[in-house]
Design goal:
3 domains; Beta-grasp_dom_sf; 355 residues; binds magnesium ion; Rossmann fold; Ubiquitin-like (UB roll); GTP-binding; binds guanosine-5'-triphosphate; five-stranded mixed beta sheet
Length: 355
């Protein structure tokens, strides 16, 4: 296909307008009577939330029943689950809320079925677990991804490396760190003008070796309040019903796990992988002279320090902090005496000594 500069240019503007209008449609101003953009009424609990998203009858409810004590109705017909069913997965002292959601269909983002509610619920999660039927065609995955994309969910992606700051005055200043491949100044200028952002500073930081920035990336940056960057684990269920070469191919895809809920195969591997994707760490605290308790953990993000651990225990713990003793993967010797800046690792045992 011939890529014509003028076509690219008009398409860019058109996409900018569409993104703006779509956001208005999907996310009406708060307070309006009907708000189709809101999710199901389930309050967040635990240390993280995983949303099970998929077409009907792929085995989402079966999976929930396997990994939590919650029973969500399972049946051979489509749309068995009609609302969001929360369950709690206990993982080595952490509590993860698992949301079993109704199956979504093509066109869900436009409001088909209860699609918009389902997708809004997914938008509030820390990890999307996309449950796929291994016996179905490969297109299913792309179709679901497109539905999530349409409401501003970006799976397994980093926000684009573009700096955009609105100013009070001074006009527009657009800078490219290196010659742009897909963008030009006039195009960005017109899109920004369409968003009434007449005074702003833009810096496109295209990096060598990385995918060059596109106009879609630029629109995502303008619309950043409506975009959510979420990790996704693709889980192929029903591997009991496919050939081994096919299984082999699926299992090697990125961010992918395979299982059979029916035969109880691979389920714990899926849970372990989901835990890894969440990038959370369990820290067990220990009081002096007492064995640590491993059924209750403090949950911190990756690269968290002793300071973050202190903050999790109590806001004011830091003030009286003298040192901490650490046993585990982050310690050179057990225990190691460390300060507030020490970076902890998953399953470390920490004892905080105060003045
Ligand atoms: N062969 C096979 N069938 C399975 C497996 N897991 C679930 N099923 C069957 O698939 C059907 C649908 O399962 P559900 O758990 O209700 O599916 P769901 O994704 O929750 O469906 P909706 O709620 O309608 O969206 C049931 O008949 C299950 O017994 C599996 O690993 N292998
Ligand atoms: Mg279900």
């Amino acid at each position: 296909m011939r890529q014509n500069k003028a076509t690219e240019y008009h398409l860019g503007l058109l996409k900018g307008k569409l993104a703006r209008l779509r956001a208005q449609l999907l996310e009406p101003t708060p307070g309006s009577s009907s708000s189709p953009g809101s999710g199901f009424d389930v309050s967040k609990s635990g240390d993280a939330r995983i949303a099970l998203v998929g077409f009907p009858s792929v085995g989402k409810s079966t999976f929930l029943s396997k990994i939590t004590k919650t029973k969500s109705e399972v049946a051979a017909y489509a749309f068995t689950t009609l609302t969001a069913i929360p369950g709690v997965l206990e993982y080595g002292g952490a509590e993860i809320q698992i949301l079993d959601l109704p199956g979504i269909i093509e066109g869900a983002s436009e409001g088909k079925g209860r699609g918009r509610q389902v997708i809004s619920a997914a938008k509030t999660s820390d990890l999307v677990m996309m449950v796929l039927d291994a016996t179905k065609k490969a297109e299913q995955r792309a179709l679901l991804e497109a539905e999530l994309e349409a409401v501003g969910i970006r799976l397994n992606r980093e926000p684009p490396n573009i700096y955009l700051k609105q100013k009070k005055a001074g006009g527009m200043k657009i800078t490219f760190q290196s010659p742009p491949k897909n963008l030009d100044e006039k195009m960005l200028y017109n899109i920004l003008r369409d968003y009434k952002m007449l005074n702003c500073e833009v810096l496109v930081r295209d990096e060598n070796g990385k995918k060059p920035t596109t106009v879609d990336d630029f629109i995502d940056v303008i619309m950043k309040d409506h975009r959510k960057y979420i990790k996704c684990l693709y889980v192929y269920n029903k591997i009991d019903a496919i050939s081994l070469p096919h299984l082999d191919k699926l299992a090697r895809e990125d961010h992918t796990a395979v299982m059979s809920c029916e035969l109880d195969l691979g389920i714990m591997d899926v849970v372990d992988q989901a835990w890894n994707e969440l990038s959370l760490q369990r820290i067990y605290t220990k009081r002096k002279g007492i064995e640590p308790t491993f059924n209750e953990a403090l949950i911190v993000r990756r690269n968290a320090t002793i300071e973050d651990v202190c903050d999790q225990v109590h806001r004011s713990l830091k003030e009286g902090f003298k040192y901490a003793l650490v046993w585990g993967k982050s310690a050179v010797h057990n225990p190691q005496r460390v300060g507030l800046s020490h970076v902890v690792a998953d399953e470390d045992v920490v004892s905080i000594v105060t003045k």
